[in-house]
Design goal:
The protein is α+β, with helices and mostly antiparallel strands. It is built from 17 helices and 25 strands. It is 32% helix and 20% strand.
């Protein structure tokens, strides 16, 4: 038998209604009959034996499936699909995915029978009962259909379509025939799916359920649950276009979400299904992993997220003063990991990125648009779209694990999670300058790391005293695997990234960058622009060294290379509470004395000489070759004699 015949028989044998279609995707039979009277396996065999090149279409609803059909090649298609996933907490995990001939995507979810087919947005459709989709190995003039992973035939326990999306589809299906004459007065129901408030309501229901259980010890009080959830929902959402919140998302929807959440929350709280009493749980014992001598110490690509910079499943901070380009750097990193392309020349481990735009999603979208515009040729050559998702909801990482657990569930598996910014995820009662708040942030980040397998990067502000680095209590820095400082040089349009802490990797040299403007659109009066990051020579990103800096570098170099020092002395020195490995170090006292003894310092006061020295040592260390701590000057990288 041919491959098409084999596949058609397999779908029919699995209980799906199979339809023959041409290369134009038009059925070759009166397919409406197949919705109620599917072809038998024998009928399928007879047809494809006579027409062996016909494509295969399947009615998903004939066997309990609904397909989200996203035409991401259309203008705004990728954004609409991503927003749909965000609004309803959809995940790609456990979902069969098919790439269409034109580059669209079909996501196969389990769903109840009778879900109608039709549009959700101009570029996203639902195909279930009353609709059909082509399946591999079908093809058309645009290209072949291909599975990304398993097909529904190989994935019998596929993920179910969430209740919030089912409700939206059913409401849309019952009212799509209503008139849409004036958008100022009648809002088309079919666009209800693009509404983040449904996700906010679901989160409020989950949060309120925990509070009700804490107060009463059970989940019996439905009225209290509804009132608590609505108060939370109302504080985080608002009505639109002159409509009140309960007109768009009323109490019936809230009640439905409580009913659908009850079984999951009952299980999460360890309650019996009928009486809401705690289950007797067997104490679990720790399981220790024994690693034999001949284990692989270098696991290859899994040993890094960004080679030489970021480890997988670790915690990092990218910090800097306002307007230093932190978010541009974070978006550049997200694009590099999401596409598997180098970041500042360093290889990346390709994987899914989730960007948590806690400080506001509008500017992040502009930066994303700039990346799309600037790298469009590169993006079109990729085998699949960049795996960079966006969450624009507000949340709190410092006041317990409610929001953290909801985030982890929404995110699923990921390679990188970027939280922008740390200040925006500290609740009203938190204080960055206290240990409890920062330790709560660290606990939340570690929970996300464990639940998703991702590296978590916090975008953070610099403190008022820039010499002390990132803002807030030192307990955060102590927990970090990597800390990166981002600074712009005033008046140059350039800046640099500098690693200021590295737990498991060497501290690489500073990286120079410049921000390149990109026009992303126009409005009535002017162009709309954003920027992308472009690597540049580090020296171009630095102001000229002062005379005192050059003199101090020469003093340090001469002391390190003195004939009496027979060899380098690799060691660790403490810098701002963190142990830093250096390839050589020397006591600071003779260096300071030599600086004070310079001819330029002979006729000035001791205070003036001290201030000159303090500014010079700070600038010397800012260039990324030296660090100062434990009363020593440490050398991070080999010193080029020609630069002395």
């Amino acid at each position: 038998m041919s491959k098409l015949l084999d596949t058609a028989v397999a779908w029919a044998s699995a209980g799906f209604s199979v339809i023959p279609v041409g290369s134009d995707k038009i059925p070759k039979i009166k397919w409406s009959d197949c919705q109620t009277n599917p072809w038998t396996v024998k009928q399928v065999e007879e047809w494809w034996n006579k027409n062996p090149t016909d494509n295969i279409a399947v009615i998903p609803g004939s066997n309990g499936f609904g397909v989200i059909d996203g035409d991401i090649y259309k203008e705004g298609g990728s954004e609409s699909l991503g927003q749909l996933f965000l609004d309803h907490g959809l995940s790609k995990q456990g979902v069969p995915i098919c790439r269409t001939g034109r580059g669209g995507l079909h996501f196969w979810f389990r769903c109840p029978a009778g879900i109608p087919s039709g549009p959700l947005t101009p570029s996203v459709d639902i195909k279930s009962s009353g609709g059909y989709v082509l399946v591999p190995p079908s093809s058309n003039a645009a290209g072949p259909y291909e599975w990304i992973g398993d097909s529904p035939l190989d994935c019998p326990i596929a993920s179910s379509m969430p209740s919030s999306l089912l409700e939206t589809i059913l409401k849309r299906g019952s009212s799509t025939k209503s008139a849409i004459a004036n958008d100022n007065h009648v809002r088309p129901t079919l666009f209800r799916a693009i509404d983040g408030r449904e996700k906010v309501m679901a989160d409020a229901v989950w949060w309120a359920g925990h509070r009700v259980y804490e107060q009463s010890g059970s989940l019996d009080d439905n009225q209290l649950w509804m009132e608590t959830a609505w108060a939370r929902f109302e504080s985080r959402a608002k009505g639109r276009d002159g409509r009140t919140l309960d007109q768009d998302h009323g109490w019936d929807e809230l009640k439905s979400k409580i009913n659908s959440s009850r079984p999951k929350l009952t299980e999460a709280l360890g309650l019996a299904a009928n009486d809401d009493q705690p289950l007797k749980r067997r104490l679990s014992r720790r399981e220790f992993i024994i690693e034999p001598w001949d284990s692989n110490d270098f696991p290859g690509d899994d040993s890094y997220l960004v080679d030489g910079l970021l480890s997988p499943a670790a915690l990092s901070v990218l910090y800097g003063p306002s307007n230093s380009g932190k978010t541009f750097q974070a978006m550049a990193l997200a694009f590099a990991v999401g596409t598997g392309t180098p970041f500042y020349g360093m290889n990346t481990a390709r994987g899914r990125v989730v960007y948590l735009a806690a400080e506001g999603v509008t500017n992040i979208r502009k930066r994303r648009a700039a990346i799309r515009r600037h790298f469009r040729d590169q993006i079109t050559k990729l085998d699949e779209p960049p795996a960079v998702d966006l969450i624009g909801d507000s949340f709190d990482l410092a006041s317990g694990l409610d929001d953290v657990e909801a985030l982890a569930e929404a995110i699923g598996d990921a390679k990188l999670i970027i939280v922008d910014t740390l200040a925006a995820v500290v609740g009203g009662g938190g204080d960055e300058n206290t240990a409890p708040t920062m330790l709560a942030i660290v606990k939340a980040a570690n929970h996300l790391i464990k639940a998703t397998g991702a590296h978590v990067m916090l975008v953070h502000h610099m403190g008022k005293n820039q010499e002390r680095g990132a803002r807030g209590h030192s307990s955060l820095r102590a927990a970090l695997d990597t800390e990166i400082e981002c600074k712009m040089t005033a008046g140059t349009g350039t800046g640099r990234l500098r690693v200021t802490k590295q737990r498991d990797m060497e501290m690489g040299p500073p990286l120079g960058f410049k921000l390149v403007p990109v026009t992303i659109g126009t409005n009535k009066f002017t162009e709309i622009t954003s920027c992308i990051v472009e690597q540049t020579n580090y020296q171009e990103a630095n102001k000229p060294k002062s005379e005192f800096v050059r003199r101090l570098e020469t003093i340090i170099y001469n002391k390190l290379c003195a004939p009496s020092r027979l060899a380098q002395e690799p060691q660790q020195i403490e810098v701002n509470g963190t142990m830093i490995a250096v390839i050589d170090a020397i006591d600071v006292k003779p260096i300071r004395a030599a600086f004070y003894g310079l001819p330029e310092n002979e006729d000035v006061s001791q205070d003036t000489a001290r201030r000159r020295y303090q500014r010079a040592i700070k600038d010397v260390c800012s260039h990324g070759r030296f660090v100062f701590g434990s009363g020593k000057i440490g050398l991070l990288h080999a010193y080029d004699e020609q630069q002395a």
